[in-house]
Every structure is written in C-alpha cells, then in structure tokens.
C-alpha cells in the first residue's frame, strides 16, 4: 500500500492553512466560511505574488502578515468580532525566554481563547498554529497532521541540532477582544 500524500508533501500552502486554522479556532467557522476565507487568502496572494512560486515554495512573514489582516477584517465584517494581533518576541539567543513569551501569551489568565501562528524551520520550513502550550510541549492545529512538538525538540538558536527551530520574527499571537 502506498503512503497517502498530505498537504506539505508537494506544496507550500502550510502558511495559508495555518492562518485558516487559527481563524477557525478563534471564530468556530462553518464549512462555508472556511471556503470563503480560503478563497480570500488565495486570491490576496495570487493578486500580489507569483502564485506558482508561492504554491511550491510557501509564504514569507510579510505574506503571513497580510493573511492575518484578512482574518482581522473577515472577523470584523462577518462575525462582528475584534481579532487582536500581537507579534511575539522570538529572540534567537534565548530559547527559554521564547518559550516563556509564547506560553505567557497563550496561557494568559483573561478568559480569552488564544492561538499563535508560528514559523518553524530545520527539519523542514513550515507554518503551524499553536493552540496550547504546556511545560513540555506545543499542541498544534496543523495541516500536515502534526499534533505535538516536544520542548526538547525545539530551539531558537542559529546553529541547531534539534528538529525544530522557531524562526525569529515569525510568531504572531491572536485572540478575540
């Protein structure tokens, strides 16, 4: 039996899916809204970029910022909700500090559900959505099927021997105000 081909095996659409998963987690969207928001995101990138290149190679932090703005506008227009964006510190010399910053954001004791869109690299370049953080792991909503990344497999440093490196400047926290 052949292995199933999944998102990410042949494409670079993880950025769009991580943004869509973040929006879905915050807004509890139905299938119709998934499709509408997906189309808005794809059209936004296609209008501004070489979309074939983007499909193959993925999106960068600037493009992710545009996708987050689409989420904010969509939530405001169709859900009458104010999605708040916070760029989170990812100092590449302090893995413990980065973990603490991400954890403090997502585990804030304010009654709001929060998610973080984060860029990863090393094992492979990938955007994902963090839904929960414990002392030992990141819990993901991920288009490639990843569920958990252990803290011991993460780093922020430039030279890494671990499976995953959080990319400096590629951590965006979202919540509904």
Descriptive overview:
The protein has 177 residues and is α+β, with helices and mostly antiparallel strands. The protein has one domain: Cathepsin B, Chain A, CATH 3.90.70. 40% of the residues lie in helices and 25% in strands. The chain has 5 helices and 7 strands; from the N terminus they run ααααβαββββββ. Strands 1, 2, 3, 4, 5, 6 and 7 form a 7-stranded mixed sheet that branches. The longest helix has 19 residues. 32% of the residues are buried. The model has no long low-confidence stretch (mean pLDDT 89).
What labels would you give this structure?
single chain, 177 residues, alpha+beta, Cathepsin B, Chain A, seven-stranded mixed sheet, 5 helices
Layout: helices, strands, pairs:
Blueprint: H1 14-27, H2 31-48, H3 51-57, H4 61-79, E1 83-87, H5 95-106, E2 114-122, E3 126-133, E4 137-141, E5 148-150, E6 154-155, E7 164-176
Parallel strand pairs: 6-7
Antiparallel strand pairs: 1-7, 2-3, 2-7, 3-4, 4-5
Computed CA radius of gyration, to the nearest angstrom:
16 Å
Share of helical residues: 25-40%
Number of H- or I-type helical stretches: 5
Order of helices and strands: HHHHEHEEEEEE
Label the CATH architecture.
Alpha-Beta Complex
Strand composition percent: 25-35%
CATH class equals: Alpha Beta
Total tally of structural domains: 1
Mean pLDDT across all amino acids:
89
Q: What is the SS-derived class?
A: alpha+beta
Secondary structure tally: strands: 7
Question: Ranges with pLDDT <50 over ≥5 residues?
Answer: none
- Cα-to-Cα separation, first versus last residue: 48 Å
- Summarize the biggest pleated sheet: 7 strands, mixed
CATH topology: Cathepsin B, Chain A
Shape: globular
